[in-house]
Amino acid sequence: MLFAATVTFSHAQTPVYTSATELTLVGKIQATQQVYHRIDTTDYPDMPPAVKRLLTNSAGLAIAFKTNSTTVSAKWCTSPRTASANMTAIVYEGLDLYIKKDGRWQFAGVGMPNGDCSEYTLVRNMGEGEKECLLYLPLYDETTSLEIGVAEGATLQPLPDPFRKRILMYGSSILQGASASRPGIAYPARLSRDTGLNFLNLGLSGSAKMEKPVADMIASISADAFVLDCVPNSSPQEIKERTAYLVNTIRQHHPKAPILVIPSTVREHGAFDQVVGARVKAQNEQIEEEVNKLLRSGVKDLYLLSYRQQLGTDHEGTVDGTHPNDLGFDRMLQQLRPQFKAILRKYNIKVD
Amino acid sequence: MLFAATVTFSHAQTPVYTSATELTLVGKIQATQQVYHRIDTTDYPDMPPAVKRLLTNSAGLAIAFKTNSTTVSAKWCTSPRTASANMTAIVYEGLDLYIKKDGRWQFAGVGMPNGDCSEYTLVRNMGEGEKECLLYLPLYDETTSLEIGVAEGATLQPLPDPFRKRILMYGSSILQGASASRPGIAYPARLSRDTGLNFLNLGLSGSAKMEKPVADMIASISADAFVLDCVPNSSPQEIKERTAYLVNTIRQHHPKAPILVIPSTVREHGAFDQVVGARVKAQNEQIEEEVNKLLRSGVKDLYLLSYRQQLGTDHEGTVDGTHPNDLGFDRMLQQLRPQFKAILRKYNIKVD
């Protein structure tokens, strides 16, 4: 009995927690007062309220650390929001852990949320030895606190940022990560692990409409390249009126940075809903026209990517017609990844 | 103003609702008192309480109908449960609509739940003409009522069951549909649309442990073939003690029906959690031993399928290490579907 009790105690050992602020914060767009916000909106007072609220979401942020612990736990708090119907609570307000294995980042476990403050052991029973870890934060909620827990006596140290350069991605809910099943499957996160580059997530669910104050904010961000995936949220009229200002303002502040524009992905329910189908077609025709106009006007290093296979041919790549599921994201990346790689390499950006 | 008001009224037209019980119920395992339960558990009093509760979930049920309406709406109620962290509310307690297009079932829209009783327009703005529809019910909740809404004056009629034969599938949460993003992506549902056969969902999340009363219940079900995907929930010891009774009892009641056994899929966190990794290995070694023993004892028409590529090589195929996401399900079916088709064809079961 004594032995059994000892074993149980050993397994249920209380983790020793350290604030994640003492480790390495990856994917950060700009310094902020609240460490897990993406942008300090007080610096940009004219942006729309919806944009300001979304910039408090911790999408794209991750903590890099190394430990010799055989378990990794976390305690974290998020705002009182709960997941929307087309997302899991894990992707919305949970955590996602990757560990380096054979030179590659490999999924290791999730942090399942349970209310606004949660404690969870993401992985246990690991072998001895040091592990390099990357812990993705919630995509759709504000993370108000985060502590990493390891076994008593184990090491826990910051790991240098594993990603090079800065590729700023501005876009819609799809970029922010709806509807991946967990934070690490958001497509900027997958791109970072695939290429070794730091793809920064400025996904603004439903609110990527290229407003002038947002364009000014984007142009103020330090980056080596810019990706614009904002067509799904912008009406054809908005695309017509706003694309040139956004591209030209970025170009003015970043004379040499390539700008990559992604057309809207398919909306699968648009196969039956004729209004939706026609809108996506009009959006994509309009962005093509605007990009061509800019190229003719002499803007250099501007690219419109293509999306020929959409999310596959079986129409199973979305959760709700609009937002890719993990299958749709995988098919999307099969098309976009080679285009990203080829263009970035032209600018002496080393791509894995 | 009057014109605008008229247009608004026309778009917001109240649907005319009909109880789904007047249409065709697809995927039904046995007749039940509550129409959206899978089995009347009062007929099998000795089954474990968890199994009884899960049999009230509407997993695998769908409504087949035809309509010339340009919109399809639904009103439905489920139990007070809410989605677990590794599932969307859509898959847990929402609806999923497919419409026949060019001879194939194609995703058309979802019913987003909003509390215990919801009303939602799944698709609108469709063209004129008759559509054949298949509406999947919630996978993880009890559906207590369901009405289908069409535009005033539109037709709404039962559609003959589009699927042939009856393939009874008994298994774990993965079979029940965790963690597909919506009900129509559960793997038995995908198999039905792919093959034209009626794969019946007897997924019992966490509770597919081959208990004797459950084995007796399964053997009592009318079916042309049986698929057993219960290894993930059963300990190696349970597999050793219970597999023979389950298989022999089915064989006794169904002398000629093929029995297909699926080994456990990978648990991706088992790459790091050595206990989990060892358990899956032991489960799969045990089921192989039991199937081989049964074959040696003279049981005919018994098959152990294989799962060589698991959920892919990038380890991104699960939401939480255990439950496939839509990417994992797709990879799983790429391996299992040809095996299902080849075996079923041997038994003169016509497969699309």
Automatic annotation (TrEMBL), chains A, B:
GO molecular function: hydrolase activity, acting on ester bonds
Keyword annotations: Hydrolase
SUPFAM superfamilies named in the record: SGNH hydrolase
Keyword Hydrolase: yes
Coiled-coil intervals: none
Record carries keyword Lipid metabolism: no
Domain SGNH hydrolase-type esterase N-terminal: residue ranges: 17-155
Listed Gene3D superfamilies: Galactose-binding domain-like, SGNH hydrolase
Cross-referenced Pfam families: GxDLY (PF14607), Lipase_GDSL_3 (PF14606)
SGNH hydrolase-type esterase domain span: 165-338
Name assigned to this protein: Hydrolase
Organism: Pontibacter flavimaris
Phylogenetic classification of the source organism: Bacteria, Pseudomonadati, Bacteroidota, Cytophagia, Cytophagales
